[in-house]
Amino acid sequence: MIGAPALPRSARITVLIPFLLVTLIWGSTWLVIKDQLAVVPPSWSVSYRFLVAGVTTLLWAAFRRDRLLLDARGFLFAACLGLAQFVLNFNFVYRAESHVTSGVVAVVYALLLVPNAILARIFLGQKMGRQLLIGSIVAMAGVALLFLHEARLNPVGPHEALLGIGIALAGVLSASVANVMQATGTAKAYPMATTLGWAMLIGSALDASFALATVGPPVIETRPAYLLGIVYLGVIGSSITFTIYFQLIRTIGPAKAAYTSVLIPVIAMLLSTLFEGYRWSLLAVGGGVLVLVGLVLALRARRPNR
Predict the structure, then answer these.
(1) Helix/strand/coil percentages in the chain, nearest 5
(2) Is 264 exposed, middle or buried (0-12, 13-18, 19+ CB in 10 A)?
C-alpha cells in the first residue's frame, strides 16, 4: 500500500526474535501435552499448569516492580481473558488430543490466523494488506496439504477424527477471542505481567472447579516425566511464552502474530520425526515449504497491521 512505511531493520529483529522463541517453544509443547493424558484428567492437568504459570508470572511482575493488584475493571478483564484462553482454549486442546494425534491438533491450530484477522477487522478496525492476504492464502494452502497428510495417516476412524478436529476448532475460536482482547485499549491500560498472572490464576481456579464438578477430587501423577511436564508447560510453555506472545500481539497485531500458529505444526512435526518416528511424505514436505513461503510473504508485508 502506497505510503505505508516498512518496519526498520532494528524493529524487524525485535519482532523476529520473540516470534521464533514462541514458535520453537510452543512447537515442543504438543509432545509434552500428549504425555499428560495418561492418568490425570485433562481439566486437572490444565489447572496445575496454570497454577504454576500464574504464580511464576506474578513473581516476575513483582521482580519488575509492577503493581500486583488490579481495579475491578482490570480483574474483570483478567477473568474474561482467563476464561477464553486458559479454560476454554486449553480444555479443548487437551480433549482434542484424546481423539486425534498431536500433529492433527497442531495443524488445526494453524488456522488461528483466520479468526484473528476477521475479529481484528471487526473489533479493532485492522485491515489486511494485499501481501499479507497473499501470504495467508499460500500458508493456508500449505496447512491444507499438511492436514491432508495427517488425515491419511490418522489411525482412528473418521468419526473420531472429525470429533477431535471439531473440538480443536472450538479451541481455536476461544484462543482467537483472547488474542484480540490483548490488542485492545483495556489490555494496554494495565501491566501485562500482572494481568496475565491473574488471568492464569483465575483460569486455574475455574479449571479446578470444572474438574471437581465433572471428574471428582484432584488426581496427581507422581511420574517424574509428568511432574517435569507440568513445570515445563507452566513456566516455559505458558508464563514465559504467553508474555512474549501477547507483547507480540500488541506490537504487530493479532493477524501477523497468529503466524506463529502456522509455523508451529512444522516444528511439531520435525520434533515428532526425532522423538515419535514421524514419516514425511512429498505431501507433507510440500505443505511445509508452502507454509514457510507464506510466512515470509506475510511478515514482509508493508502494512504494519497495527
Answers:
(1) 80, 0, 20
(2) buried
Establish how many alpha carbons lie within 13 A of residue 120's alpha carbon, considering only the half-sphere containing its beta carbon.
25
* Orientation of helix 42-63 relative to helix 241-252, angle to 10°: 70
What is the CA 33 to chain-centroid distance, rounded?
13
User: Are the C-beta atoms of residues 86 and 43 closer than 8 Å to each other?
Assistant: no
What residue has cell string 480443536?
168
Helix boundaries (H) for 125-231: 130-153, 158-181, 185-188, 192-215, 224-231
C-beta separation of 170 from 87 below 8 A: no
CA pair distance 126, 128, nearest whole angstrom = 7
CA–CA separation, 249 and 258 (whole Å): 8
What is the distance between the alpha carbons of residues 189 and 130, in angstroms, rounded to a whole number? 32
Q: What is the pLDDT of residue 4?
A: 39
Coil/strand/helix, residue 75: helix
pLDDT digits (tens, 9 = 90+) for 129-177: 777 778 878 878 887 887 777 777 766 666 777 788 889 989 999 999 9
CA atoms of 77 and 72, how far apart (whole Å): 9
Amino acid at 138: V
Question: Length of the chain, please?
Answer: 306
Report which of 107, 134, 145 is spatially closest to residue 268, judged by C-alpha positions: 107
pTM score: 0.82
Cα angle for residues 222, 226, 232 (degrees, 5° grid): 130
